[in-house]
Amino acid sequence: MDMPTLTIGNVTSRLPIIQGGMAVRISLAPLAAAVAEAGGIGVIAGSGLTCEELAAEIRAAKAATDGVIGVNIMVAVRNFADLVKTALAEGIDLVISGAGFSRDVFEWTREAGVPMVPIVGSERVARLSERFGAAAVIVEGADAGGHLGTDEPVRQLLPRILDAVSLPVIAAGNIVDGGDIFEIMSMGAAGVQMGTRFAATVESSAPVEFKQMYLDATDEDIVIVNSPVGLPGRALRNPLTVRLDEGTEPRIQGCIVCLKKCGKQFCIMDKLVKAQGGDVEDGLVFTGGGVARVHDIPHAKDLMDRLVAEYRLASEGVTA
Ligand SMILES: Cc1cc2nc3c(=O)[nH]c(=O)nc-3n(C[C@H](O)[C@H](O)[C@H](O)COP(=O)(O)O)c2cc1C
To answer: Helix, strand, coil: what percent of the chain each, to 5?
Structure first.
């Protein structure tokens, strides 16, 4: 069986695969455009960018492909409204929001005629999203990379979200290969969102040190940190996470007030920027629960082709 297409509002992608938005500066135009060009939905992470930077990324992605390009912006960032409005002005195809819930974004996207897709971690937020006009929801489990809005794995949460709403439901968390995609879609998901697998591609803007850490990781290297965003986050153990665990990380020196509300345990922006700059000792390396199953750094197009082939095999009952 071939993968079905994915329709979200007025947008259809040939493949039901969304490349998850990854901040800060991990999923930019090169990755989003490559995924979109290969038939999926490519997503630029807007959190941590200025409006000018986001506009430039959207323009670069749109110049490179006619495929579907979305943005992911965390509600928790102070310039959320400006980033969303910038993306809409640049003709973005889809808006995805995570790390919080915004009522206003439904109005801005509706006025622009652009589908709005919140990331949800409970039936309550899924229903709320449907009521406010979401075109689809992404249910992200506790096994996903980045900030986590639930303590349940996606395979446990998905059936309840499917019951709760009549929108397309896209699932995220520990989805790494085409067999996983077949499994999740057989449960009723309309598509998948994958982060970790795409962070380790040639087109990802993660530095080589970050990608190598993914290749070397085992399940024992995965830790949960308390992010100042007010949510737990899944990351790879390094000297930073050890210090955070021990309570020995020095207090924040300066602050650019990037979040609407900050717990100030550490500066999330500084640590994500550091990781993206190649400092994987003092930076925060977010990852999903399936990182130990990532063994190579393919081009995004080759990865997409592989996912399609694995999906087909899984649908024919062939296991890898
Ligand atoms: C390095 C990294 C950065 C991420 N940044 C964001 C982000 O800025 N906003 C967001 O909503 N999700 C973020 N995520 C979550 C992904 O978009 C995606 O939902 C998640 O990675 C899916 O789980 P998986 O990694 O197991 O595939 C991030 C994930 C990773 C691995």
So the answer is: 40, 20, 45
Asked if residues 133 and 114 have their Cβ atoms less than 8 Å apart, the reply is no
288 lines ligand 1 (CB under 6 A): yes
Q: How far apart are the CA of 2 and the centre of ligand 1, in A?
A: 26
Could you tell me the distance, in angstroms and rounded to a whole number, from the CA of residue 302 to the centre of ligand 1?
21
Ligand 1 atom nearest to CA at 24:
8
Q: Give the model's pLDDT for residue 320.
A: 60
Q: What is the pLDDT of residues 128-157, one digit of tens each?
A: 999 999 999 999 999 999 889 899 999 999
Pocket test for ligand 1, best of 31, 105, 196 (most atoms within 8 A of CB): 196
pTM score? 0.97
How many Å lie between the centroid of ligand 1 and the Cα of residue 20? 6
Inter-residue contact 177 to 293 (CB < 8 Å): yes
Q: Give the confidence band of 227 by pLDDT, cuts at 50, 70, 90.
A: confident
Fold that domain 6-205+295-315 belongs to in CATH: TIM Barrel (3.20.20)
Residue ranges per structural domain of the chain: 6-205+295-315, 208-276
Bridge partners, 286 (sequence order):
235
> What would the pLDDT profile of 300-312 be if each residue is shown by its tens digit?
999 999 999 999 9
